[in-house]
Specification:
Largest sheet: 10 strands, mixed
Number of helices: 6
Low-confidence stretches: 268-273, 294-302
Distance between the termini: 116 Å
Order of helices and strands: HEHHEEEEEEHEEEHEEHEEE
Strand order of the largest sheet: 6-5-4-7-8-9-10-11-12-15
Radius of gyration: 39 Å
CATH class of one domain: Alpha Beta
Helix content: 25-40%
Strand content: 25-35%
Shape: elongated
């Protein structure tokens, strides 16, 4: 009888232990998984994924070789890729190398870091009393010199706040920054008629010159992108040798005056003669008795105006 009772007690105890073990089993697995993951992360941050090769590619500037670009990145072989911040690596290169415009960094596991660069090219002259800044399309200052590059569009009236090569071009007037960015983006997208000159002296009276022959009086910066598109539409309708002046009329219309017509505005002489009370001309003479010519006034006829 005692043996039977002992057996039943042992069975009950074993069942309780099994149930307890089953309930704790997921917790065991979780702890093991966390430990394994922790070990894996620790190894990946130390022993594994260390850089063995740094590859430099892309449209490399002629001013730098691959070793110089890799050195500017601040990365060395043996550094751990898991700890590497790609944005910081790219910014290191942009800050150190004036003639690099864009940087892309890619991690190729297990041990290769790929750096792809794009060269900066002068896109604008920014001219003021202090000299000329040659600036890339993205607004990076590439060169500070006394002379402008005649092959580049020229921007005047920008009021540059910094002149240091490698720095981002900024204006003392933040609105002129936004105007420059709009024009630069429009030009980068491709224009049928290139903008060869930009005058930002008065931001409420912006002037652009297309193809070195048609000056466009834009007015203020409102809807600047649209206004440039409208100007190109008008230029499409003009003969390619036309030289003149384009201006906004209201918000959605342009007018054009030909330069030759403006410079050769027709003039006509209008004679005015003094008369007496009966309407008869009074002939005046000088001290020698010679008749004096009647007084004349000149009237000017404006150049023909074409509107679109």
């Amino acid at each position: 009888m005692q043996d039977v009772e002992k057996t039943e007690i042992q069975r009950n105890t074993s069942a309780k232990r099994m149930r307890r073990r089953n309930r704790l089993r997921p917790l065991y697995f979780l702890v093991v998984a966390v430990l394994v993951a922790g070990v894996g992360i620790a190894l990946s941050m130390t022993a594994f994924f260390n850089i063995a090769t740094i590859e430099v590619g892309g449209n490399k500037p002629k001013q730098y070789n691959e070793d110089e670009i890799a050195h500017a990145s601040g990365v060395h072989t043996g550094d751990n890729m898991m700890r590497l911040n790609k944005e910081e690596v790219a910014q290191n290169i942009l800050d150190s190398l004036v003639f690099v415009e864009d940087v892309q960094v890619e991690k190729k596991f297990p041990d290769v870091l790929v750096i792809t660069v794009s060269a900066s090219h002068s896109a604008f002259n920014v001219v003021d009393d202090s000299g000329t800044l040659q600036v890339s399309a993205a607004g990076k200052i590439l060169k500070n010199s006394p002379d402008a590059d005649s092959s580049l569009p020229t921007i005047t009236g920008y009021e540059a706040a910094t002149r240091e090569a490698g720095q981002k071009l900024t204006s003392q007037d933040s609105q002129k920054d936004r105007i420059f960015q709009t024009i630069s983006k429009k030009m980068a997208g491709g224009l049928t008629y290139p903008i060869t000159s930009v005058d930002l002296t008065d931001k409420y009276d912006i002037k652009l010159v297309f193809d070195s022959r048609v000056e466009f009086e834009v007015g203020n910066w409102s809807e600047l992108d649209y206004k440039i598109t409208l100007a190109e539409t008008v230029l499409d309708q003009l003969a390619p040798d036309k030289i003149g002046y384009l201006s906004m009329v209201g918000d959605h219309q342009c007018s054009y005056r030909d330069k030759s017509a403006v410079e050769q505005q027709t003039t006509a002489a209008l004679a005015t003669t003094a008369t007496d009370e009966n309407g008869m001309p009074i002939l005046e003479t000088d001290e020698n008795g010679n008749p004096i010519s009647p007084v004349t006034e000149t009237t000017t006829t404006a150049a023909p105006l074409e509107e679109w």
